[in-house]
Write a structure and sequence with these properties.
Strand order of the largest sheet: 1-13-12-16-14-15
Helix content: 40-55%
CATH superfamily of the domain at 1-25 and 160-289: NADH-ubiquinone oxidoreductase 51kDa subunit
CATH architecture of the domain at 1-25 and 160-289: 3-Layer(aba) Sandwich
Radius of gyration: 60 Å
Number of strands: 16
Distance between the termini: 165 Å
Mean pLDDT: 85
Oligomer: single chain
Amino acid sequence: MESLLEQIERGMLWQAPGGVHPPGHKALTESIAISQLPIPEKLIVPIKQHIGVHGKVLIESGQFVLKGQALTAPNQPWSVPVHAPTSGTIVAIQAMPSAHPSALEEISIILSPDGKDTWCDLFPISDYASLDYEEIIQKIQMAGICGMGGAGFPAYVKSQTDKKIEFLIVNGVECEPYITADDRLMQEHADEIIHGISVLNHLLKPEKILIAIENDKPLAIKSMQRASESFENILVKTIPTKYPSGGEKQLIQILTNKEVPTRKIPADIGILVQNVGTLFAIGEAIHKGKPLIERVITVTGKTLNKPKNVWALIGSEVKHLLDNCDFEPQAQQRVIMGGPMMGFTLPSVRIPVVKTTNCILAPNQIELPFNDNEQACIRCSACADACPASLLPQQLQWFAKAKEYDKLEDHNLFDCIECGACNYVCPSEIPLVQYYRVAKAQIKEQQEEQIKAQRAKERFEIRNQRLEREKEERLNRHKKIAKPKTADEQTKIAQAMAKVTTNQSDKSAVSAAIARAKAKKLQNQNSETLPDNTEVAIKRAQRKEKARLYREEKQKETLDSDNNQAPSSETDDKKSAVAAAVARAKAKKLAKQSESDTNKDSREVESTQAEDPRKAAVAAAVARAKAKKLAKQSESEKNEGSSQVELGTSDDKKDSKDNN
């Protein structure tokens, strides 16, 4: 079974889906050689002319610059510089209308040429094989080269892929009607294109280089075959004329029968595609040191008396190109940047041409009628049959009108190459591609908003973490982190602690000895000066016991006398009981008072003894005297109470007798 490479070398081609066959209209310019336009009076150079980001502006207003001098410098990935198309003075750096369907303003550098067209110093490389990989890539980047087939993909990004490239495809198809810029470039500058191919061949080392050209360009085919005869791995492939065979994915499928997966790039399947104009610019940058400051543009249409292909300086106004082709505008005149299928109508002819501009079309109404009469879809499915990406244009249009972005992505909207084949075949004249472009822009804007929201959330979380960290630092600021001690330091600390403990123990022992000596001395003094408190306590206890026995005896006698006497009446008994209770209460109160005073005096004596031996002796004598006095008072009150009880009883008896 033949391998893929063997089938390709045998001349085998495959069929891509969809496609249409619109009228070519190439006869207007295909036989006219490329001419050089005069330098315009003003050049407007946008600082961003490619897919990616713009570079840093290196010049300022009023500065004089030379032809080929860098006006910006790449400072981020996917960035390439722009250069001065000619020598002159920078008039201004400001926002100007861009080469876009909406003419959105972009920062541009306005240059006033001096007419001398003086070059800056150039640094050509005679032997690029002596340079390493990174030096060649940097040279391509600093020359400001991007994809010139229409997409504007930075050429250095494609060229520095880390994937193994099996096939390098040179796109010379140029399938869109009216455009003959690449055709004429291949006819007139085939050797320079081969120089660019050889640079990429050195970098990528592909197994095969395929130069694809449609069969309606016989002169270009012959020219490229002649220029590539000395290269064994270069093969010129002639393919059938059909639009849009020049699309990157469609051309890969036609030449290799491989399909690029959704949201993937050709390098993922081992293939790299470059336009012939891009390869010409790479050859000029390496072999001549020239940056990308001009390109071939087809200026055509029935309203031009002299349609032609021209070398136009980047930044030239569209009006300058039209004027040099004898432009005669008509009523409701349209000027289109690009071809009739993928181009867009310019809002003004003061728009500058950029690196991706390959055609300026100025048709009349008969040649390319303008229809703004959109009708309802009749569901004929012609758009689906013509779609080269095998999409469903009708459903995509419904979802785009309803702004159902999720469904658009599910139906692979971004696989659409905006070729315009669906527009071309639509009987209802629905501008389908316009719906897709708007939907893509809205989806990208939505995705950017989501990215911004996510970044804002991340910044908010980081801020909260920082505030929490600072709060903890403030709370722990007074705490010092102890550093680990060395062995010597730990030994010294232990010795110091032991010494402190020993000193404290010695002090405690001394203090205890002093206390014992003081106590012993005080005891000796008390034994010499104070009476024996033990004898005093015994005598006090004996007195208390005698008083208690006396009270009990008196109470017993009182009860016996009451029981022996007959009660004269209920009233006499109550009076006697009350009087006896009163006497007992008074006696009990006096006894408690005597006891408390005695205890108090004893405590005072003891405390006084601890303070001063002489005071202690005096206090003890006073306490004994008080105790003796209280005892006598208590005894006398008891006797008085008893006598009162007896007197009361005798009086009651006398009264009772008198009554009888």
